[in-house]
What we know:
alpha/beta, Rossmann fold, four-stranded parallel β-sheet
Amino acid sequence: MKKIGLTTTVPVEVIFAAGYKPVDLNNLFITSKDYMKYIDIAERDGFPKSLCAWIKGIYGACVENDIKEIVGVIEGDCSNTKALLEVLELSGIKVYPFLFPHSHKKEDVKKEIIKFMDMFEVDLEKTEKVRERLNKIRVLAKEIDKLTYVEYKTTGFENHLYQVSLSDFYGDIDKCEIDLKKAVSEIKKRKPINKKIRLGYIGVPPMTGDIYDFVEKFDAHFVYNEVQREFAFPRAYEAKNIFEQYYDYTYPYDIGFRIKELKRQIKERKLDGIIHYTQAFCYRAVEDIVIKKELDIPILNIEGDKLNKLDARTKLRLEAFLDMLMDLKGGITCEY
């Protein structure tokens, strides 16, 4: 199977139907033991220091891992992706553009997905057959999520990891299914994680993966990962077809649509507070203004840049926020 890079979640059903092995370049970048080398490659090739580390990491991962084709989302995700694709195309990499229409109309979403299928020369029947297969794995991710906030047996990091991996299914559907089945089986045998504070994580997946272990030191537990959960399409089985599924995907559309789902999850998961992670130099940081106005819950905004570990200042801010939440709860352990 030919490898094809992804800049973010796209209709991966089409990619698999076309016989490709999708590789989420974000995952390839951030899971590398030497992730900084990808940023260094980008800056050496002229990318400015005042640019999102994710964009530079994606570029470096693409170049260093000999990716010859890439799908880039030019609307509905990072505002810098279009420029990134132009540079990659100049380097001889074949680019397939995709967009989540700003209008967020069903007919417009359908139109873009049909265009995407035409690019890869696959029809709807073949795509739907793949979707049916992938949805069986998405059910496993949904079960892991429920084991996080209903039974409190999954750690926040595991919840993050298994859901975010469904952006590309490891490029190997069978292996992904086996791994998630094993995870479900192992997690079910555990005792509940008895933490007092139930946290939600919203915003792009973090550069600083140690945030999950850090909050647990202060009697807190992430029971919701917003964007990671959307990557796993928890409502996919409710969609009649691929068009409805990607219409219902909250992340790439307007903030109002996203907030409706956030409100549902805050209520269902009985969250005590939210950590809103934003990336340095990213336009999405401005959305924090709307989020804090619309959501009636304590929210702490933290910002990441190049480091893959929390810095001392952020740790202090997190600790103070968690202390405040503990005071609001009166130090009483919640009933599981």
